[in-house]
Amino acid sequence: MTVRRRQPAPAVPLTLRSPVSDLPNCAASSVKALDRLGIRTVSDLLRNLPFGWESFSEVAGVGSLEPNVPATLTCVVERVVAKRTPRRGIRLSEATVRDDAGVPLKVIWFNMPFLARQLAPGDRLVLAGTPKSGRYGELELLNPLHEVIRDGSRPPRLGALQPKYHLTQGLKPQRLVEWVNAALPLADGLADVIPAATRQAQRLLPIAEAVRKGHQPDSEAEWREARRRFAFAELLELQAAFLLARRRLEAESASPVPYRQEVIEAFKRGLDFRLTNAQRRSIWEIYQDLEKQEAMNRLLDGDVGSGKTAVAAAAAAMAHHAGLQSLVMAPTEILARQHLNRFRHYLEASFPDLRVELLVSGLAAAERRRVRLAAASGHCGLLVGTHALIEEEVELAALGLVVVDEQHRFGTRQRELLRAKSRVGRPHFLCMSATPIPRSLALALYGEMALSTLDELPPGRPAIITRVIPPDDREVAYQLIRREVGAGRQVFIICPLIEESEALEAKAATVEFERLRRQVFPDLRLGLVHGRLKEKDEVMRAFQAGDIDVLVATAVVEVGVDVANATVMAIEGAERFGLAQLHQFRGRVGRGAQQSHCLLLSDQVTGRALERLQLVAQIQDGFRLAAEDMRLRGAGELMGSRQHGMSDLAMEALHRPELLSEIRQEAESLLAADPGLNQEPALREAALRRLESTAIS
Ligand code: ADP
Ligand code: MG
Fold this sequence. Notes:
Keywords: ATP-binding, DNA damage, DNA repair, DNA-binding, Helicase, Hydrolase, Nucleotide-binding. By secondary structure, the chain is of the alpha/beta class.
C-alpha cells in the first residue's frame, strides 16, 4: 500500500463569509479558540476590535532595553533554530539577533517552531516585546511580535501602537495580527448597519474605515473613534431588535383587563399594611397596560423586600375580576411555596372565590391531579409553581396573566409554550427582578419591556449593619456569628466566587464547609448547599425550619429565600463579587424585626477593592448602589459575569447614559418611518439575528 502524501491545501480566496479555517496558518485548535470568542467567519474577525493598545516605543539598540519595559527594536537575524524545552518538551524557535551596532540579543518564541523555517540569517526584523531578565541576568525577548523588513516592503506597522486582542487558550496575539492583516482588504465589502443619514448626523465612521482604524490606528484617537462607532452600531442593533420584538407582540391581541376601582379598594382592605408609594405607582402602571388590547410586557424591578409580590397580587386580583387566570412561576420549589402562602395571605380575605393553588414536583400524585384539574376547569384562578412543571403539565384555558419571579427575561420558547395554553389570546407578562439597575441600563438590556421600579422599601425596616472585615479580624466575624447563634438566630456564610466552573466552586465550598465545621464551629449545626448538590431544596428547607444554625453556600442562595430568623450574612472573598450581587446577598437578612449584619470578608483590603466594598457598607439603596457602581466601573462590571448578550465595548459606551436614549430615539424614528426596516436590510438582518440568538421575544 502506498501512502499518499497530503498535498498542502491550495490557498482559497478569502471572502467575508469564509470560515476562519481558510485564514493562513489557522489550525483546528485555532479555529476552536476563535469560536470561543464568537469568531467564526472572516467578517467576525474584522468586527472583533482590539480592546486596548500597548505602546512599544522605539529604542536605538539592545543597550537601551530595560527589563519589563515594552520596546521596539530593529535588528538582523544572526541564527535561528527550532528546539524543544528540555523538561516539558515545548516546541519553540530560538534566535540570536544583533542590533545595528552589533550587540546581540536572545529571542525566544514559544509554540512557534515554524518561525525557525520562515526566518533566515540576514533577515532584517522589527521586534516589539517586553524584555525579561534571563537566568544569568542577561536580557531576552520572549514571544515578541515581529515583522520582516524586505526590500520595497511597506514601512512596518510595529512601533508605537500594538493591538491587544481578547485571547483564549491556544491563540497567539501575533496570529491575530496576521489574520487581520490578511482580512483587512475585504473590509470594504462589509455591510453597514448604521444608515448613512444617522452616520452623518452622529459623525460616525463608515464601517470599513472603522474596521481599518480599529485594528490599525495611527493614533489612540482613531482607535477610540472606531470603537465609538462599533458601540453605537451594536446598541442600535439591540434597540432595533427590541422594537421589532415589541411589534411582534403587538401584532397579536391579548384579553384586555378593564380597570375596576372596587377591585383595588378591596385588595387594599385585605392587606395588613399600607402600600408604599412605589407599589401604588407600579400597580397603576400595570393596570394601564392590562387594559390594552395588546399584551403587557413589563419588568418590575425592585430591591429584595421592596414588596414585589403584593404588586403582582394586585394584578392577579384585577385579572381574576375580568374572568382571567393568572400563573406565577418561581425558580425553585421553596420559593413557589413561599409565594403560595403570600398570595393566599394577600388575596383570600377580599377575594374568597379566587382560588390560589400550588403545583410543584414535591406534591403527591393525587394532589397534583386535583390541582391540574382545577387549573384546566378554570376553578383555580391563580396557580403558583416552578417553571419546569408548569410548562409541561398544565392547561389553563383562560390564562390572562403570567408573572415570572426572579428572572429578567423570559425565553421565547417558554413564552410560546404558555401562549399555546391560553385560549384568550396572548397572556400579559410581568417579570420581577430583584437586581436593581439604573434605568439607562434597563433600557439597554431589556429594552423590549416597559419598566416599573420599586425604589422604596416598606417603612420600619432597620438598616442592615454592613462592615468590611480585613483578614486579621476574621475572629471578630466568627464571634459575632457565635453570639447571634447563641441568641437563637441563623447565619449565612457565602463562599468565594469561582468562575472557572461549578465543579471547582462546589469543591472549594466543601473544603470551606469542612474547615468551619471542624475547626471553627464544631459545636454549631452547619449545613452546606452548592450548585452541584441534589438535595439543595432539602437543605434549604432544614435551614428554613431552624434545624441548621449556619448555612454555608455558594452563590446559589442568591435566589430569594425568606428566612426571617437569619440575621448574619457573611461573604467570603467579597471583593470577587459584583456590588449588585453583594447587595443581593445582603437582602437575604434583615427580613425580621431583629438587627441584622452583613460582613464582607476580604483578603484584598487595599485601594480600589476596599473602596468598592465600602460603598456597599455605606449605601443601602440598591438603585443608588448600582448607579454608583456603574459610574465607577462601568456597566459590564456592574452586571458581573452574568450573561447579558452585549459586548464589553457596548457596555463601556453605557457610561454615557444619554447616548443610549439618543440611540433609542434613532431606532424608534427609523422603525416609525419604515416598520419592516426594508430600507435598511443590514440593520434588519442584524436585529433579527439578535432576536434569535438571545432570549428577547
Ligand atoms: P420582594 O419579593 O420584593 O423581595 P416581598 O414581596 O417578598 O418582597 O415582600 C417582603 C416583605 O414585605 C413581605 O413580608 C411583605 O408582606 C412585606 N411588605 C410588602 N409590602 C409592604 C408594605 N407596603 N408595608 C409593609 N410590609 C410590606
Ligand atoms: Mg420576591
